[in-house]
Design a protein that fits this description.
The protein has 203 residues and is an alpha/beta fold. It has one domain: Rossmann fold. Strands 1-2-10-9-5-6 form a six-stranded mixed β-sheet. Strand 5, helix 3 and strand 6 form a beta-alpha-beta unit.
Length: 203
């Protein structure tokens, strides 16, 4: 597990403690955590083919499960909070539009959080209207307040110590920053961030 800081900008009013598991360097690079792309399951095939290998959805879920079981308890200890609530960045389209096999990252996070005895906040930020798909090159239309405008935010956020999880963090996209700010605005006592991968370079 690695540590970094998400700096304040026009989307986020304060610096946020952040963690990530591994570098994300693009699907065409050997050693890239391609299971993340399998979890997205964008084309509904339950697998991704990259660098001569097939990455299946069920194997990707198992890989994510193991990573979370190692990283989440460490993060909780470092944050020093007794009752950590785990929230998940919603996918870019309205959640009701996705079949269950395109929401397996969220379900895997929920399963691990419940096993670890943490608080399940996976639905505390729930997308109700479509937004740009940010993991495709050239995505545009992200603006401060887009989380508030496109999501329902649970009243349960108020007073909670929250860890917000995303699959990939890319500094220039600002979707994560905007969601972190929405959690602060909704009354969270504290908010930290964790991603499975962090973009190491433009690819």
């Amino acid at each position: 597990m690695n540590r970094f800081t998400i700096d304040s900008n026009r989307f986020l009013s304060r610096n946020v403690r952040a963690f990530y598991n591994c570098d994300y360097i693009g699907m065409s690079n050997p050693g890239n955590p391609t299971f993340i792309n399998a979890l997205k399951n964008d084309f509904g095939k339950n697998f991704v083919f990259a660098c001569g290998h097939i990455y299946r959805l069920d194997d990707a879920c198992n890989t994510l499960d193991k990573i979370l079981c190692e990283d989440l308890p460490q993060i909780k200890r470092e944050l020093g909070v007794a009752d950590l609530t785990v929230c998940v960045i919603p996918r870019s389209k309205a959640e009701i539009s996705y079949p269950s096999n395109k929401l397996m990252m969220k379900q895997t996070i929920r399963n691990v959080v419940n096993r670890l005895g943490m608080r399940d906040g996976a639905d505390y930020v729930y997308r109700v209207s479509d937004t740009p798909t940010t993991h495709y090159e050239g995505a545009a239309g992200i603006y401060p307040g887009i989380t508030r405008d496109s999501c329902e935010l649970s009243s349960e956020i108020r007073g909670k110590d929250i860890l917000l999880i995303d699959d990939i963090y890319t500094k220039t996209v600002n979707v994560d920053e905007d969601c972190l700010q929405a959690l602060f605005d909704a009354g969270a006592r504290s908010v930290a961030f964790y991603s499975i991968g962090r973009t190491a370079k433009k690819f």
